[in-house]
Amino acid sequence: MSLHADLGGDEAIGMALDRFYAKVLTDSRVSPYFDGLDVDRIKARQKDFLAMAFGGPNRYTGRNLHAAHERARQQGLDEEGYDIFMSHFRDTLEELGVPETKIEEVMTIAHTGKDDVLGH
Ligand code: HEM
After folding, report:
1. CATH code at 68?
2. In a mutational test of the pocket of ligand 1, which residue from 20, 37, 39, 42 has the highest number of ligand atoms less than 8 Å from its CB?
3. Which residue among 2, 44, 85, 97 is the one 20 to 30 A from 74 at the CA level?
4. How many CB atoms within 10 Å of residue 25?
5. How far is CA 79 from the centre of its chain?
6. How far, in Å, CA of 94 to CA of 32, rounded?
7. Torsion sign (Cα): 50, 119, 79, 73
8. For residue 30, which of 75, 62, 93, 65 has the smallest C-alpha distance?
9. Torsion of CA 22, 76, 37, 60, to 10 degrees
10. 21-48: per-residue pLDDT in tens?
11. Residue 79 is part of which domain span?
């Protein structure tokens, strides 16, 4: 079974992203990066990206992670912002009762995007 299916598939991941973005957008340390952007569109793309990254359906048509975060990097996104963003993701999974071993798997996969996001 894929990690995507373990997590409950598209519907569960979509609900987790709603909860996650509610945290991100009310945290002034990271919310400014989303100013003026269509967050629903970003969420939809991130859902497709995560489905692909977690071994589910491959239908991602967004930009590569390096290009997608160009604007945020120009606005000063660095390791600290990255860690805050990721800790909201972890908190969300914990609140939803995802078992710790699964959370570790999710975070390990998510971290493979770090260098692209930060432009390293
Ligand atoms: C490994 C971690 C991350 C992944 C997997 C990820 C994934 C994505 C994806 C798939 C998109 C949509 C790309 C597109 O529209 O073509 C996106 C856009 C975006 N992400 Fe991330 N992201 C990560 C980390 C972050 C962090 C740390 C921040 C800021 C705190 C951030 C802020 C944004 C913003 C502002 C956009 C919209 C860009 C735009 O439309 O111009 N992301 N992200």
Report:
1. 1.10.490.10
2. 42
3. 44
4. 14
5. 15
6. 25
7. negative
8. 75
9. -80
10. 999 999 999 999 999 999 999 999 999 9
11. 3-118
**The model's pTM:** 0.94
Tell me how many domains the chain contains. Answer: 1
pLDDT-derived band at 20, boundaries 50, 70, 90: very high
Q: How far is the CA of 33 from the centre of ligand 1 (A)?
A: 9
Would the CB of 24 count as within 6 Å of ligand 1?
Answer: no
What is the SS3 string spanning the chain? CCHHHHCCHHHHHHHHHHHHHHHHCCCCCCHHHHCCCCHHHHHHHHHHHHHHHCCCCCCCCCCCHHHHCHHHHHCCCCHHHHHHHHHHHHHHHHHCCCCHHHHHHHHHHHHCCHHHHHCC
pLDDT score at 55 = 96
Q: Residue 84 in contact with residue 30, Cβ under 8 Å?
A: yes
Structural tokens at position 18: 């709603």
